[in-house]
Automatic annotation (TrEMBL):
<dbReference type="Pfam" id="PF25954">
    <property type="entry name" value="Beta-barrel_RND_2"/>
</dbReference>
<dbReference type="GO" id="GO:1990281">
    <property type="term" value="C:efflux pump complex"/>
</dbReference>
<protein>
    <submittedName>
        <fullName>Efflux transporter periplasmic adaptor subunit</fullName>
    </submittedName>
</protein>
<feature type="domain" description="CusB-like beta-barrel">
    <location>
        <begin position="222"/>
        <end position="293"/>
    </location>
</feature>
<dbReference type="Pfam" id="PF25917">
    <property type="entry name" value="BSH_RND"/>
</dbReference>
<dbReference type="GO" id="GO:0015562">
    <property type="term" value="F:efflux transmembrane transporter activity"/>
</dbReference>
<dbReference type="InterPro" id="IPR058625">
    <property type="entry name" value="MdtA-like_BSH"/>
</dbReference>
<comment type="similarity">
    <text>Belongs to the membrane fusion protein (MFP) (TC 8.A.1) family.</text>
</comment>
<dbReference type="InterPro" id="IPR006143">
    <property type="entry name" value="RND_pump_MFP"/>
</dbReference>
<feature type="domain" description="Multidrug resistance protein MdtA-like barrel-sandwich hybrid">
    <location>
        <begin position="76"/>
        <end position="202"/>
    </location>
</feature>
<dbReference type="InterPro" id="IPR058792">
    <property type="entry name" value="Beta-barrel_RND_2"/>
</dbReference>
Length: 378
């Protein structure tokens, strides 16, 4: 090969190497610039006093959750004790009644007639007793004088005893008819209010037909079912705080008694909590709350500050100048009022006392976000 040809080929190869190196350098520079451009720039948010709360120790009541329906400790379903037409039922739902107050009547015509019949039969039986008694006295005198035999006296004594038994049976029948006549008058067995009116005047009432329901709201009860393991911690007199639907303020309650037997199937134990009657409380309202067993001091934050949009619950903590997500374990909850604001606080583990935690008003903040406080917050 000629020398000139070799020089030409060498020049072409060198030119190709130079062009490739230049292209590689250009691509590397472009990649670096792209990487710098795509790197997110840390944002910054401004926090006010309402956006931050400190994790602090407070007294937390360790309690058992309870729920159920309120019912009056005293209630009575007034039923018809005799059959007949209902008369003079004037009470309606909400009316106040007293124990023994007449609230209705069953038509007494039939029972008055039965009473008169039974009384006449008792009077007739009494007359037979008097006749038998005189016969016995006469025969006894004749026996003493020796005019009749002892057998005749025994027969007259038997007739007297039979007449007395018949009279006693007639008197008992008279008592039954008088009881039925008295049962025709419907009286309230307890003092309270009419909760239900289940019949109307003029209706034919059968035996045990329901007429009205009376409830006494001065004392109510909550029947709560607890697992057997938790029920062993409960004692009579323990306090509880209940949230009743329709009532803004918490309602105080205490354990009145504990059922000695577990429920079949669920094996739960029924605990009965007493609630003093007050305005707004009604039978049938749903209530739930916590039955306190003991009080401990624990580190707590507002429940609304605990976020659950990750696999594990966490809180957003201001660490230096940025936000950090700290995983926590939650425990007991309690209603606490601080600075005239009532919040539900929850016991947390995994957080340092005094840590500045973002409240719910701050919303979700990305970890690593820079923060700036308004004047006077820190």
């Amino acid at each position: 090969m000629k020398r000139s040809t070799l020089w030409i080929l060498s020049g072409v190869a060198a030119a190709a190497l130079l062009a490739g190196g230049a292209r590689w350098a250009s691509l590397r520079k472009t990649a670096v610039e792209t990487t710098k451009t795509s790197t997110p720039v840390a944002t910054q948010i401004e926090l006010s006093a309402s956006d931050v709360v400190k994790a602090q120790k407070m007294d937390m009541v360790l309690g058992l959750p309870v729920s159920g329906t309120l019912k009056a400790s005293q209630s009575a379903m007034v039923k018809a004790r005799v059959t007949g037409e209902l008369m003079d039922l004037v009470v309606r739902e909400g009316d106040l009644v007293k124990a023994g107050q007449t609230i209705a009547r069953i038509d007494p015509t039939e029972y008055q007639a039965r009473e008169r019949q039974a009384k006449q039969q008792a009077d007739a039986a009494q007359a037979q007793v008097e006749i038998a008694q005189k016969q016995f006295d006469n025969n006894k005198a004749l026996v003493d004088q020796g005019f009749i035999s002892q057998t005749a006296l025994q027969n007259s004594a038997a007739s007297l005893n039979g007449a007395k038994a018949t009279h006693m049976a007639a008197v008992a029948a008279l008592d039954v008819t008088r009881k039925a006549l008295d049962d025709a008058i419907i009286r309230s067995p307890i003092s309270g209010q009419i909760a239900q009116r289940l019949a109307q005047p003029g209706e034919r009432m059968g035996l045990d037909a329901r007429i009205v329901e009376v409830v006494n709201l001065s004392q109510l009860e909550l029947e709560a079912a607890l697992p057997a393991a938790d029920a062993g911690l409960v004692r009579a007199g323990m306090k509880a705080q209940l949230k009743v639907e329709g009532i803004d303020e918490p309602v105080a309650a205490k354990v009145l008694r504990i059922n000695p037997a577990a429920q079949a199937g669920s094996r739960s134990v029924l605990v009965y909590l007493g609630v003093a009657g007050q305005d707004g409380l009604r039978q049938g309202l749903f209530a739930e709350g916590s039955l306190g067993t003991r009080t401990v001091q624990a580190l707590a934050v507002p429940l609304s500050s605990v976020r659950t949009d990750k696999p594990q619950p966490y809180v957003q903590v201001v660490d230096g100048e940025q936000v950090r997500h700290v995983t926590v374990q939650t425990g007991t909850r309690a209603e606490k009022t601080l600075k005239n604001i009532t919040l539900t606080w929850v016991e947390v583990q995994g957080l340092a006392e005094g840590a500045q935690v973002l409240t719910a008003s701050a919303g979700a903040v990305r970890e690593g976000t820079l923060v700036k406080f308004t004047a006077g917050v820190r």
